[in-house]
Design a protein that fits this description.
It is elongated and about 90 Å long. Helix 7 (142-149) links the parallel strand 3 (130-134) and strand 4 (154-159). The protein has 14 helices and ten strands. It folds into two domains: 5-91, Orthogonal Bundle (Arc Repressor Mutant, subunit A), CATH 1.10.10; 99-343, Rossmann fold (3-Layer(aba) Sandwich). With 353 residues, it is of the alpha/beta class. Helix content is 47%, strand content 19%. Bound molecules: S-adenosylmethionine (SAM). The site of S-adenosylmethionine (SAM) has 19 residues, from helix 5. Residues 128-235 form the Methyltransferase domain.
Length: 353
């Protein structure tokens, strides 16, 4: 027998406390979830639970009687909670994936494939040109950029992480036009006005000073050169849960603690203007994920929930309610990334900003 959410909440609040009247049950539910049940929903839940023998009115003569759990109600609650916990355990990935494997996993999603293709198209690369992939990671986009410049052009992949670079080198060993090098993109090892195109994909969200990287990109790009940045806005991460406050707390934790520049997506047009670029387009790319496993592969739902608890964004009980509902579904999450396309004014001299 399945109990619905309202019935589960009634069983839950009666399990630990004293017997309660209907209005007190609803107050306890409000304390737990942040919202009261509607009058019909509460009375329906009470009537059904009573009919199933899961709750009963206490026998106190001469008074309106409060409800208490029956032994069978307690058993049902424990069974349902254990079953939800089992589902959650099997569903969510607990080990931290290795960084390269994680990037490959994201790159394999339909969403990444489609926005990455859009980004390369927006770069408008011509054969023979020189392109930088800033924060190239395991070389995910180097082959597509190499194809666009053709063997007569040049692609430079730059990244700070040696493991990522090793993978990027192995991946592009056959592509003579690609060079992979270690470096910090806050200080690019290229001459002023020496490249035609530059690209970032989920990189500026992590750097210490995005404005500094933009200034460097502006310095090395030629007049008429273009920079395309694919960067998320984690404050726009929306995960459905009946208790909106839990969704907000989860998103706030990701945007404030997990990602260094959590709202960068919306800020790039302004920062690029300040760095001397002309903003040509800001294209929103939104994905909706309705499969909790698929979302977990990208969002690390359980791991990040545990971190949110450690950081004080969620209590243990809230985290449990959050994960249990996500595991049970129906699930829906949506994430937003912006493709920001900016140009160096043609014939524009150096920019001092
Ligand atoms: C999320 S990964 C994205 C990799 C790649 N662009 C892709 O789409 O698969 C971010 C990459 O940026 C690199 N990175 C972060 N800060 C950097 C910095 N200051 N200089 C160079 N690389 C950096 C990291 O090492 C990592 O490989």
């Amino acid at each position: 027998m399945r109990t619905n959410d309202a019935q589960m909440l009634v069983l839950f609040v009666l399990a630990d406390g004293p017997p309660l009247h209907g209005y007190a049950i609803n107050t306890a539910i409000e304390k737990l979830t942040g919202a009261r049940l509607g009058r019909g929903s509460l009375s329906g839940a009470l009537a059904r639970l009573e009919a199933k023998g899961l709750i009963e009115r206490m026998e106190l003569r001469g008074r309106q009687l409060p409800f208490q759990l029956t032994p069978s109600g307690r058993e049902t609650l424990e069974r349902e909670l254990a079953s939800t916990a089992r589902v959650a355990e099997q569903l969510f990935e607990t080990a931290v994936p290795d960084r390269i494997g994680y990037q490959d996993r994201i790159a394999a999603t339909e969403f990444a494939q489609s926005y990455k293709q859009l980004a390369v198209e927006a770069l408008n690369v011509r054969p023979g040109q020189t392109v930088l992939d800033l924060g190239c990671g395991p070389g995910t986009d180097l082959a597509a950029l190499a194809e666009a410049v053709t063997p007569s052009g040049a692609v430079f992949g730059i990244d700070a992480n040696p493991g990522m670079l090793e993978r990027a080198r192995a991946r592009t060993a056959e592509l003579t036009q690609v060079t992979v090098q270690q470096g910090d993109i806050h200080a690019l090892p290229y001459a002023d006005a020496s490249v035609d195109r530059a690209h970032t994909d989920r990189v500026l969200q992590h750097v210490a000073d995005p404005g500094r990287v933009l200034a460097e990109a502006r310095r090395v790009l030629r007049p008429g050169g273009r920079l395309v940045m694919a960067e998320p806005d984690w404050e726009a991460l929306a995960i459905d849960h009946p208790d909106l406050e839990l969704s907000r707390a989860y998103t706030r934790h990701i945007a404030e603690r997990i990602v260094r520049n959590g709202a960068l997506g919306r800020q790039l047009a302004r920062l690029a203007t300040e760095a001397g670029f002309t903003v040509s387009a800001v294209l929103p790319v939104v994905t909706v994920i309705r499969d909790v496993r698929e979302a977990d592969q990208v969002l690390g739902i359980q791991r990040n929930t545990e971190r949110a608890v450690a950081a004080g964004y969620l209590s243990d009980g809230e985290a449990q309610r959050w994960l249990e509902h996500l595991a049970e579904g129906p699930f829906l999450a949506s994430a937003t990334l912006y493709l920001t396309v900016v140009d160096v004014p043609a014939g524009g001299g150096s920019h001092s900003g």
